[in-house]
C-alpha cells in the first residue's frame, strides 16, 4: 500500500422517507460539487435519520471502497446503484484501500481535515431494501466488505480529487477486517485470545467496545 490515495467522490445525503413514511433514512447520498466542510459530526450537509445507531463523533464519516463494486456485480447482478458512487451510503469513495489495508486508530489527512478510523461499518436491513431485496447485509458480513467509519480529529475541508494520506498507524495488528471478523462475523469463537487482546486498542469506538464486552460476557 502506498499513500496518498485520490478521493474519487465526496457524498452527502438528507433524511427522506425510506421503506415507509415512518422509516426515514439518509442512506441515499449524492456527490458534492466543490468542497465541503468537515467538522466533529461529519460533513456539512450530510444527515442521519436514527442517531441512536448512526452518526455521532465516532461515526462521523463513512468510507466504502469502490474496489468492491465489481465483486458486488458478480454477487447480486449489475444493479443500477452500482453504476455510480454512493450505492452503500458512503461519504467517501476511493480505489486501492480495503478493510485489509485500513487499521483501527489510523489517522489520515483527508483534504485539509484529520480523521481517525474508529470502527467498521455494521450493516443492517436497509442495505437489502435499498438493493431491492438482494442479500447485501449478509454479503457484507460473510465477505467482510462492510466499509468503515472515521471520527474527526481536526476540522477542515474536502472535495473530490483531494488526497487521502496516512499520517499515523498506532495499531498495525488490528485491521478493520480483523476486528469486524471478531466482533461481527463470529470469528471470536475461534480466537478468544484475539478478542481479549482487542481491549488494548484504545481508538476503538465505544459501540464496538461495548460489543466486545458483551461477547466476553463482561
From TrEMBL:
<dbReference type="GO" id="GO:0030151">
    <property type="term" value="F:molybdenum ion binding"/>
</dbReference>
<dbReference type="Pfam" id="PF03473">
    <property type="entry name" value="MOSC"/>
</dbReference>
<dbReference type="InterPro" id="IPR011037">
    <property type="entry name" value="Pyrv_Knase-like_insert_dom_sf"/>
</dbReference>
<dbReference type="GO" id="GO:0030170">
    <property type="term" value="F:pyridoxal phosphate binding"/>
</dbReference>
<dbReference type="GO" id="GO:0003824">
    <property type="term" value="F:catalytic activity"/>
</dbReference>
<feature type="domain" description="MOSC">
    <location>
        <begin position="30"/>
        <end position="167"/>
    </location>
</feature>
<dbReference type="InterPro" id="IPR005302">
    <property type="entry name" value="MoCF_Sase_C"/>
</dbReference>
<dbReference type="InterPro" id="IPR052353">
    <property type="entry name" value="Benzoxazolinone_Detox_Enz"/>
</dbReference>
<protein>
    <submittedName>
        <fullName>MOSC domain-containing protein</fullName>
    </submittedName>
</protein>
